[in-house]
Amino acid sequence: MRENRENNGNKRGFFGRLIVALLTMLAVIGIVAMAISVLSGYFDPASFPWLSFFGLAFWEILAFNIVIFLLLLLMWSRKAWVALMALLISVPGFFKSFSFGKAQDGGDLRVMSYNVQIFKDLYDEDKNTFDVANGIAQMVRENQPDVLCVQEFNAFKPNTSRAECVKLFGALVDMPYHYYHQKAYFCGNVIFSKYPLSPVKDETDFSKERDYGAVAEVNAGEKGKFLVICTHLVSFRLTKEEVTMLSEPGNTKEEVQEYGKSIISKLKSAFKRRSRQVNRLLASIPHDGRPILLCGDFNDTPLSYTYQQIKKSGFNDGFVVAGHGIGHTYAGKLPLLRIDYIWGDDEVQPMRFKRIRFKGSDHYPVMMDFNLR
To answer: Least enclosed by CB within 10 Å: which of 91, 152, 200, 320?
Structure first.
């Protein structure tokens, strides 16, 4: 085999050697890009915003390195080991982004988290919001969660207030209890429950009704009491045209010039803002011995600073523990983005995690069965 490779290398000719040299150079670039991607979550975007771009593009960088590795193998080049290095470096990032978790039977309680995108249909923005809300409510009833965390909730019935719509939606999903901040700007975070809810009254930013989340205690009777946090960190706020440019090939020079700077600026700004938000969020969580569920749309991937800070603070990613696969939760045109999470502290035992393939918004609902330790 070795002699065959050496003979193939000798017979390769000038253009063959040139191709191998080019592929080797690309493999080196791939190593650097993959290393930055895997390590990006350990650097605060407030100081190093550009590193976060690599973490966001983990799957694309991995695919690039796989292609380079296969091409070098086809060329029978010993330089394939260079590309193999990039694949080995990707392993820690892969195990954050792909779950081999084992689902278990049981689970006394079930929680669902869903960004409803102000009840706009993913494929038909002109669809009546009341019909969208009814469709989402039907999906919720079919899955029967005990607690539902909703982000981007909005009044969905004409001439009906937000408060009335919250009550109406609670009735539609068969959940008589709900909690949300009463201020005008509440970021659409609403907690619905089949069990009684009690707001947490203390001096944290949650009780001051900051815009990034709401927290309440769930009293599930003999099953126990636990805290549920419903949160939504700032998004990239990309327009439909900007998303199309990122997701579809064949953009013109004029389109790249028109949208490119705007996209980079928005991504950079969002990375920095989420860095501040997640640190405030974690500092505001009341740790008093009660089990804690942290649910919501975090708008960041598993290789992000946001993810790393939450994990470092003692929370466990329910999908990694009890899910399987990539589990991407963004339902729009940008592929493979897992940005919706259900976290639990050590007092929460995830049993089964499921991403529901329901396209009622630009996100998929996520759901976890769990026990309290």
So the answer is: 91
> Is the Cβ–Cβ distance between 198 and 207 less than 8 Å?
no
Q: Please check whether residue 138 is in contact with residue 130, taking contact to mean a CB–CB distance below 8 angstroms.
A: no
Q: Structural domain boundaries of the chain?
A: 2-97, 109-372
3-class secondary structure, 269: helix
Q: Regarding the domain delimited by 109-372, which CATH topology (the fold level of the hierarchy) does it fall under?
A: Deoxyribonuclease I; Chain A (3.60.10)
List, in sequence order, every residue forming a beta bridge with 366; answer none if it has no partner: 113, 355
Alpha helices in 40-57 (DSSP H): 49-56
Q: Which residue has the tokens 């099953």?
A: 223
Q: What is the pLDDT of residues 27-67, one digit of tens each?
A: 999 999 999 999 999 999 999 999 999 999 999 999 999 99
Distance CA(178)–CA(176), nearest Å, equals 7
The sign of the torsion formed by the CA atoms of 65, 67, 70, 74 equals negative
Cα separation, 366 vs 357, in Å, equals 9
- pLDDT computed for residue 203 by the predictor: 56
CA distances from 358 to 122, 243, 252, 306, 355 (A): 10, 21, 34, 26, 9
With contact defined as beta carbons under 8 Å apart, do 307 and 300 qualify? Answer: yes
Of the CA atoms within 13 Å of residue 269, those in its CB half-sphere come to 11
For 260, left (φ over 0), alpha (ψ -120 to 50), or beta?
alpha
Edge-first strand order for the sheet with 366-372 is: 177-179, 190-193, 147-151, 109-115, 366-372, 348-355
Taking only the tens place, the pLDDT of each residue in 135-179 is: 999 999 999 999 999 999 999 999 999 999 999 999 999 999 999
Question: Which H helix or E strand runs over 240?
Answer: helix 240-247
Both tokens assigned to 301:
């991937």
Q: Is 37 helix (H, G, I), strand (E, B) or coil?
A: helix
